[in-house]
Amino acid sequence: MPRRYGKYGGAYVPETLVPALEELERGFRSLRRDLAFRSELRTLQETWAGRPTPLYHASRLSGEVGGAEIWLKREDLVHGGAHKLNNALGQGLLARRLGKKRIIAETGAGQHGVATAMIGALLGFETVVYMGKVDMERQRPNVERMRLLGTEVREVTQGTQTLKDAINEALRDWISNVETTHYLLGSAVGPHPFPTIVCEFQSVIGREIIAESRRRTGDVPDLAIACVGGGSNAIGTFHPLLPFRTRLVGVEAGGVEGSVGAASLTRGTPGVLHGMMTYLLQDAEGQILPTESIAPGLDYAGVGPEHAALKDSGRVEYTVATDREALSAFHRLARTEGILPALEPCHAIAEAMKRARGMRKDERIVVTLSGRGDKDLEVVAALAHPR
Ligand SMILES: *Cc1c(COP(=O)(O)O)cnc(C)c1O
User: Fold this and answer.
1) pTM of whole model > 0.85?
2) Which of 86, 227, 339 to mutate to test the pocket of ligand 1 (most atoms within 8 A of CB)?
3) Ligand 1 center to residue 15 CA distance, Å?
4) CB neighbours of 300 closer than 8 A, spacing ≥ 6?
5) Catalytic residue among 73, 75, 84, 208
6) Which is nearest to 302 in space by CA: 349, 248, 263?
7) One of 25, 69, 75, 106 is an active-site residue; which one?
8) pLDDT per residue over 328-368, tens digit each?
9) Rounded Cα distance, 279 and 253, in Å
């Protein structure tokens, strides 16, 4: 298991956390090949989470756009409405095998918090989720969902009172409670071994794309596109496809025209945050810049270290879509395919629409539709019908 991806990754943590990270790495190493563990995971993926998810040919959208065929990997149909559960389920089972009684997590928009709360209930953990005060006010329904699932939501009042501060608080809790507690980190970020673990549990997306694509069309897709926040749905899509000829494109949040948005790979520089070396949006002194995006799940100043290495190597191309482009993709998909997507993957759909036009009719693009749009309806409706 790589501790680093090129010069990125690593584990920049206080010494008190080192034993917990080592225990986690050992546990993961032995369980990833353990047949009983894998069969337990597969059964719950199928019977509780709704996997495998369909690979859907969006023929009306493709016809309107012109050029290559656009296909959607329907992670919006996973239980809970997003890909986040793939990782939460895997880590939850891992934590139980490690003998932990308690799980903690950070959440920004609340999507990972809800996924963790669902797993906490399913597996009988005491569950605590850290969430910035500002985010709690913006995302009331998710706070309510977590509470109904039996999770304690702890308000974080430090710093900007958003995701970055919630991660810091969760790390602090973990340091004081490593014996009993697993920190269920929500994206392919943080100190080693988290990026590797999250990649493994999200790679079910890419493996299913390969299998289903071959079954339906006889080959892997020509191009795969995914949105990049911390980078978990994207790495889950890309990692299994790395050895193949498929071109890979990650799309970051461009925000409003002229802003940095949350595009750490496209507009950032290397540095250290949350235990990892990676691309960050930071100023000349290394202070983290404020980020913003219409898609709350993409609103993070860092990115998973494997993406940083894949950018430098050129194997994956990273680009941005603006708030406006994402919103326009939202309406296009809703009206042509009868699907209300989350605003995060709308960034990937916007890029697919741009690229399809320049490709041949017999070429195929797969876009990972990482979640459904119910959580974003208020934002979209307010912009569509301004008062
Ligand atoms: C959280 C979230 C994302 C961004 O997270 P990644 O780790 O980059 O995948 C994307 N889409 C949806 C629907 C999300 O909830």
Assistant:
1) yes
2) 227
3) 30
4) 108, 163, 164, 187, 189, 229, 230, 262, 264, 291
5) 84
6) 263
7) 106
8) 999 999 999 999 999 999 999 999 999 999 999 999 999 99
9) 14
